[in-house]
Structure formats: C-alpha cells, structure tokens
Amino acid sequence: MSVTTEESLLPELVRRCAASGFDLVGAALAEDFDSSQPAGRRARDLDPRCGTLVVLATAARDAWERLHAHVPLPLAAEPGARAARGAARALGELCGWLADRSVRARAVQAHGLPPINLPQLAELSGLGIVSPVIGQLLHPVYGPWVALHAALLVEGRPFGARFPRAVEATFQPCTTCAAPCAAACPGETYADRQRADLRRCAQHRHQGHCASHCDVRRACPIGSEHRFPGEEEARRQAVQWARFRRFYGFGPWRMLPVRLRQGPWAGGPPPRS
Ligand code: SF4
Ligand code: SF4
After folding, report:
1. I want to staple 80 with a disulfide (CB 3.0 to 4.6 A). Which of 3, 7, 120, 235 is the partner?
2. What is the pTM of this model?
3. Is 204 strand, coil or helix?
4. Quick one: average pLDDT of 6-14?
C-alpha cells in the first residue's frame, strides 16, 4: 500500500487533475496570495482556514476532451456547457479524493460568487504571467488560450510551503511586443495604453458585438494554434458578458443601485478567466 506523505500528495493530486482534464495545475500559499488582494477578494475571506490554494486550468485539446467526457452530450443541454459541468463533476471528485486523505478542500469555480482572482493566482502559482496590456494569463506554449476553471481552497499546508513553478517569472513577452492585441479591439478598450477601460468593452458588447469571440485574445501571436474550440470561445464570451452587464449596469441591471450591482466584485471589475 502506498503511503501518502507531504512530498507525494501534491504530485499525486496533479496526476489525478490531469486524468480529469485539468492539465495545468499550480499551488501557492494563501498568505502570499492574500497579500496581493484587496479586502473581500482574499482566499481567507472565503474560508478563514484556507492555508493553501491550488489553481486548476485547461489548455491542451485532449484535456478539453477529457473534461467533456465527464458529461456525455445527451446530458448537456448545450454542447458549450459541457466543460463547465465536466469541471464541476471533476472538482467534486478531487475534493472527495483529498477528504479520503484527511485534507479538507473546497472548490471555488471561475464564475462563482464571491469571486477569486484566478489570473493573479495562476501567475503566483507559476502557470504563466498576467499580460500587463490585456490582463489575461499568458502561457509560453498556449498563450492566452488557457481556461482558468477553479481554485481549491485547502485547509492548512498539507503539501508543504514550497511548490514547483511550471513557468519562470522571466517569461515577460509583452515587454518586447508591439501589442497587436490592443490595436485589434474594435471597442477601443485599450486605446489608452496605460490603462484598460473595460467599460468601453461593455459598451461595445451592449451594442451586440463580440458575441462569438474576442478579437484581442485572437490577436496575440503566442499559442494561436491552441485557440479554444469555437463553442467554448463563445460560451466564455457569454459568461464574461453576463458579469460585465451586471457590473456596468446594462439592461435590467441599470435599475439596481451601483452598490448592489457591483457588490460581489468590490475592488474592481470581474477578472477575466
Ligand atoms: S470583447 Fe470585443 S470589445 Fe471587448 S476587449 Fe474583446 S474585442 Fe474588445
Ligand atoms: S499580443 Fe503582445 S502585448 Fe498583447 S498579450 Fe500577446 S504578447 Fe502581450
């Protein structure tokens, strides 16, 4: 019988995550993540016992297929919802696997409320860097085509206090790039190179544009051959739009006071995932 130790538990968890479809996995200490987050967005605001965070992402095509396999088509009303349902099912299994090893963990999905800043957590965990231009996670192989699905909020430090990084912090592609991403936005979200104006993105979306994809994401040359399947690209756009619509007060949300509309995202607009 294999004995699980502090050193072996994280590698075992990573292998199980990969089998479920999460092919990019990283870990960080909650205190390190929380020190970079505003009040209301810290891991220990969600769970005071959280000592470790594990971030789960998908990139490679075969990983998407493994995630989709959790939910056969007849059970998924829309094909585009398969990854979300597959992720939810896989997360439940992973938390159960940890509980069998006396490790308490809770999953927080990308679009759950209250939110957790998954791009920043992924950067801290060594999965890539957050582009200073467009605010999305960039991976050396997959570029911006990494789907951040969830974080596991793990009690204590069952994996120790030091974790391997998949991507070195020296990976900084935006510093030498002419930023075709910013120029590609028809909504002029990045017209001011010093500061993204996501309200402009929301206004453009409100006029009915960008439903199927984001030109900014598509314009980044890194990992363009790993673009999401079309249905997943559109589904993620729809989820992002639903959050922007509420945050910026479009449609029925304009009737609600700002405090109620923006309450779940205190500290800034919803992060992209
Ligand atoms: S969704 Fe459209 S408006 Fe928004 S950043 Fe992407 S390309 Fe620009
Ligand atoms: S296009 Fe260039 S500046 Fe824009 S995200 Fe990609 S690497 Fe960064």
Report:
1. 235
2. 0.89
3. helix
4. 86
